[in-house]
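Notebook, bench 3.
Goal today: get a predicted structure for Carbon starvation CstA family protein from Serratia marcescens so we can plan the truncation constructs. The sequence was checked against the plasmid map this morning, with no discrepancies at the termini. Length recorded as 726 residues. Pasting the sequence as submitted so the record is complete.
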Amino acid sequence: MKREGILKHIPWMLLGILGAACLGVVALRRGEHISALWIVVASVAVYLVAYRYYSLYIATKVMKLDAGRATPAVVNNDGLNYVPTNKNVLFGHHFAAIAGAGPLVGPVLAAQVGYLPGTLWLLGGVVLAGAVQDFMVLFISSRRNGASLGEIIKKEMGPIPGTIALFGCFLIMIIILAVLALIVVKALAESPWGVFTVCSTVPIALFMGIYMRYLRPGRVGEVSVIGIVLLVAAIWFGGVVAHDPYWGPALTFKDTTITFTLIGYAFVSALLPVWLILAPRDYLATFLKIGVIVGLAIGIVILNPELKMPAVTQFVDGTGPVWKGTLFPFLFITIACGAVSGFHALIASGTTPKLLANETDARFIGYGAMLMESFVAIMALVAASIIEPGLYFAMNTPPAALGITMPDLHRLGTEDAPMIMASLKDVTVHAAAAVSSWGFVISPEQILQTATDIGEPSVLNRAGGAPTLAVGIAHVFHQIIPGANMGFWYHFGILFEALFILTALDAGTRSGRFMLQDLLGNFVPFLKKTDSLVAGIVGTAGCVGLWGYLLYQGVVDPLGGVKSLWPLFGISNQMLAAVALVLGTVVLIKMKRAQYIWVTVLPAVWLLICTTYALGLKLFSDNPQLEGFFFLAGEYKRKIAEGGAELSAQQIANMNHIVVNNYTNAGLSILFLLVVYSIIFYGVKTALAAHKNPKRTDQETPYVPVPQAAPADGVTEGEVKVSTQH
């Protein structure tokens, strides 16, 4: 038996050695281009070994998952909210919910400092922190009847920290929604092809919703195929529309126009029935998400492209043009998802546990789905690193940092078109010179040719990560799939990103509406009624109004809204993850498993160090390179005061936007600090009291054994009685 036991580990040992060797090549081969395959193989090896051993250790030793214990879905099976679901199906639902814009955008932005730092954090962070958090919260919630994060904190720590947590979760949701919307705005501004394609998803989703509900109920696969065909047709026809002399200019919108349109859309969408638009779009997003990432991985294997971005760039010192801040701590908040994400704690509690058929499935769904998201992030980082570095910086650097002012591309359809094109060529020359001066040589012709190849008037001022990723996707797909040009695949990439970002925006606005109604209901009980149209309108208006305000401020920020909103999003998101891990620590102590708290304490402490230090720098640093909130606000107030009559009205308005944005960000940052450390204070207090008590004090629901009959739709008795052993 011992010999057999050793033999079964040999393939895993070989896989681990292969992964370590590939990672060694990625880390040690400096000053030369290496194949992107090294990163892909290293990542897959790390994920498989971590899932096989570390997640199994947590499942069997730390949590002691019980296959014979009935889950909330089995106990409360009502066919509506509590539905035991096949673990493979639930994996897809959970993955679709957690894998939003973060794992796509954060790694693309992180490429500013090179591909190596981001790769190491994505792999180490997900294994030791991100997947642990998701797994732990899913386990804790499933042992508490599928309670939400705020409800669990209230049960385990008390009503005061529970209320604080609910308030903090709502604030973080607002930041997340503002950032998601900003990414869509930056991708669609001045892009008639993108606008037409993304707008087409609304009638397509409506058609799918009506088709599934009234015409062909239950035919999910059938309607999904129809939806995908319609999406491909929309992408192709979008190219025709964009080059039409009338419709092209008519669909070329400024970023502010798209902002208000998106706010209006989100308000209406959040009040519509879920089956009408949200559910159909979710189906499309899931198919596209998995298909594109798998296709991108296969394309990289076939093409074996070189990583053109250096392993480490000079911008590790904090002088980068895309985002400000040194490697530590700002890399760890720039990659806001993919390694660890507090937002996942909101999904792993309250929603997914109500669908869990067997407690042992939590390992596959909680730990496994987070590993899959990390792979998505790795693919995004690779896609950003295989394009020319000069093009990467030209696309993602705000115009002000390039020393240029973008012409009004909306006027390309007017008689001023020749003048606008001449101006565009001029600013492209200046942009190329600025980027080349940083050591990433690129010619104006290369920038202009890229814009021509993807069917856009310009690729400048495309911050936010989404357009860069779309260029990387187009770079791979147009070489391995004949018959379509770069323009088609670029807008396919934009649609791929925008589709599930809009899905997350829809779902997030609904969740934010319910959170706000719950908060306001403490003062006006009527507003807690989720079935009331008036209460729904009030909650939706409040939620959309708050994230819409932050979105608008980010869009009109002359320094680039991504630079101000993304750090705030990253910090708040990682702080929420730290709170979730602190909760996990408290629960383990109350369960009398204190010997295992290192599993949650170590990542929690690391996240708190990174986020607190980063927030302190963003608040109080007077280093101009860090662009601290109070420092920038003070600087621009001084410029307004000293400028006097020499400043134009537009210049004063731009400076005032910067002042307001930075004071807003500073206020939110201080609020986050108070919320997080208040919960940590109560967590430590609760943990100390529990440690002194010789008995278990956790608030698990009573043990109920799994019934003998199959408990759910499509879930067999054999699937329920899964062993925790590998």
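The mean pLDDT is 87. The chain has one domain: 2-191+252-395+485-720.
Flagging this for group meeting.
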